[in-house]
Design brief:
heterodimer; A: alpha/beta; globular; B: mainly alpha; 2 domains; 85% helix; elongated; binds guanosine-5'-triphosphate; binds magnesium ion
């Protein structure tokens, strides 16, 4: 590949999945991978390193947003031309990376946002979909005026220029809305790309969704 | 003296003692200590001389001394909570910066790791 693409994977207690995730990304293209181990107490770092990723270790947990910002700083310092945010939990498919990057390579947009709602390929848990994600989308429309179809998706691709301009100050889960705010405030061009996120049977996500909402409101209330 | 007066006085007394202790151990700043000393002295004065509080209250257009005390108390509390939040936020940011700096300065890079392992073997 002619471009330097860094895949940034925030990981917190993902020793079970991180190895397979890193290897699947390496199989799918010439990418550089950095895993940000956010104070995990399991073998996340060791497994990621063995699978062939660069590993940055947060000595204590600072949250997904903080981990992404750390990975971004590292990638930008290591010649990244394109950056991709990818989850460590095995829910994302490595093949989507190319699809996300395509509009950026073609110069159509500076940021490509993965969306679970552009097609019906993602089987979202209904509670999470209707009580968390849809309200969050509405919330975003009201506050930042952006008409995106999915506001809390961990899959994104950014050009170096876009990533360099964004300031990710929010450490925890609300960084996803912060990224959108930044895109809107700094007039960064974006496009949405349909992606499939795999939901395993263990009804996950609802409590975490609640954390997103809580973060979002606290963020708007206290750190305007 | 009413029981409530004794209670308030005792409370103010111990609070003032604690401020003095914290100041000596340098766990609070002088300006913080000053503000809280004024607050607790105020409480002490008001509980000793309720009429004085009523007089002050009337002169600013509040009917009862205890109401004025409550209003001021609420204001002090709000601003204290706000300041605490702001400081906490600042602290969190500093902590994240520190953690990030440390992480980036000590990256684990796959090739290097393997090399250092093979060195150990040799
Ligand atoms: N760095 C860091 N990463 C985290 C933290 N919590 C979760 N993550 C990572 O963030 C990614 C997404 O986490 P999930 O819990 O699946 O959140 P989600 O994908 O928004 O929620 P679902 O829709 O339920 O999958 C995974 O790669 C996690 O390892 C954290 O505290 N710090
Ligand atoms: Mg997930």
């Amino acid at each position: 590949m002619e471009h330097t693409v860094w895949i940034i994977i925030p990981a917190y207690h993902e020793a079970k999945t991180i190895g397979a995730v890193v290897r699947s990304i390496r199989r799918s293209g010439e990418y550089r991978i950095v895993v940000v181990d956010d104070g995990s107490t399991d073998a996340t770092s060791r497994v990621a390193l063995r699978a062939g990723a660069h590993v940055l270790v947060h000595v204590v947990n600072r949250g997904q947003g903080a981990a992404l910002a750390t990975g971004t700083a590292y990638a930008l310092a290591h010649a990244a031309e394109y950056l991709v945010h990818f989850d460590a939990d095995g829910q994302h498919a490595a093949e989507t990376i190319n699809v996300l990057l395509e509009p950026l390579f073609k110069g159509k947009a500076e940021v490509a946002l993965g969306s679970r709602f552009l097609d019906n390929s993602t089987n979202l848990p209904p509670l999470k979909k209707w009580l968390i994600l849809k309200p969050a989308i509405l919330f975003t429309r009201l506050f930042s005026g952006m008409k995106v179809t999915d506001t809390h998706n961990g899959l994104r691709a950014l050009t170096r220029h876009a990533a360099g301009r964004m300031v990710l100050a929010h450490d925890r889960m609300a960084h996803a809305s912060e990224i959108l705010d930044e895109i809107s405030a700094k007039h960064i061009s974006y496009t949405e790309v349909p992606v499939t996120v795999t939901y395993h049977t263990r009804g996950q996500g609802f409590l975490q969704g609640c954390a997103i909402i809580k973060d979002l409101f606290l963020h708007k209330l206290f750190y305007p | 003296m009413l029981p409530v007066q004794i209670l308030l006085l005792a409370f103010a007394f111990f609070a003032l003692l604690r401020i003095g202790m914290q100041l000596r151990r340098k766990v609070c700043t002088r300006s913080d200590a000053f503000v809280w000393t004024v607050v607790w002295l105020g409480v002490a004065v008001v509980s000793l001389l309720p009429n004085a509080a009523t007089w002050v209250a009337n002169s600013v257009g509040v009917g009862r001394g205890s109401d004025l005390v409550l209003y001021i108390g609420a204001l002090v509390l709000f601003s204290a909570v706000f300041r605490a939040f702001a400081r906490l936020h600042e602290l969190e940011k500093t902590l994240t910066e520190l953690v990030r700096k440390q992480a980036i300065e000590h990256p684990k890079i796959p090739d290097q790791e393997e090399r250092s392992k093979s060195k150990k073997v040799l």
